[in-house]
Amino acid sequence: MILDDLAIDQREAFCLDLARSAATLALDGFERQAGQPVGMKGPQDYLTETDGAVERHVRARIAEAFPADGFLGEETGGIPGSTAWVVDPIDGTANFARAIPHFCISIAFVANGEVQLGAILNPAMDELYFARKGRGASRNGKPIHVSATTELQATSFELGWSNRVPLARYIAALTALFEAGSNVRRGASGAMALAYVADGRTDGYAELHMNSWDCLAGLLLVREAGGVTGPFLCLGGLTEGAAVLAASPAVASALATATGIPLLTAPDTLPAAPLTNLRTA
Ligand code: LIP
Description:
- It is built from eight helices and 14 strands.
- By secondary structure, the protein is α+β, with helices and mostly antiparallel strands.
- The chain has two domains: 5-143, Fructose-1,6-Bisphosphatase, Chain A, domain 1 (2-Layer Sandwich); 152-259, D-Maltodextrin-Binding Protein, domain 2, CATH 3.40.190.
- β5 and β6 form a beta hairpin.
- α1 runs antiparallel to α2 (49-65).
- It is globular.
- The model is unreliable at 275-281 (pLDDT under 50).
């Protein structure tokens, strides 16, 4: 089903309101949960009650407003189909669980084969990043742009980590970046990291495997802010995840070389085959 501009306009207005209502829940949970026990989904994979509460809120509001749209969330999974909302209710859960105010809600809307809308909101900082395909990116309504850094000795990259990829590959990429003269950080929220690339706060972000709910909003933000990304949707990333790269143009190839993640050379679109099976978190 192809959506026209009016249909995407309706979802844009809804998405911005949805991000803010979810952020209110998340901030309340953040302030209440300090010192509360935190569950574990697996090694270094935290689950807080707020993750579930925020995702249930988001999913219910989408089902009421756009019942025909698909949904894919980190905590409850879903069958996205070709028109879908892709949501991480709390990205940066490891930070959230330790009362570190570096976490966000990430909401992406996929339609017409591409990411059309992306919203990333850090409630603790009250910073709402938003992008619409072809219409730019903003923070709290003000236009943003990737950095103008050209010299590797002046770069600050972020390299995400997860235990879904052999540690040796992460260490090799980290070593290559430091040896190239870059500074390398890890903030444990991939969505926030991508938003910071779009905002020029970081020169690039890479992670050797990310799930779609962590990165789709941020990848759109970076492209709409003048940045370069790697392929994701076209590799089947919506349901299987894939490696992620996003950077300001002058340093993108250096990040690609250090990490082995290729740069996108065409629009990042969903594969033609229908999406049926789905791996949940
Ligand atoms: C996080 C991702 C990040 C990854 C972390 C973690 P979560 O997601 O955003 O890219 O490096 O290990 O998976 O679990 O906080 O929603």
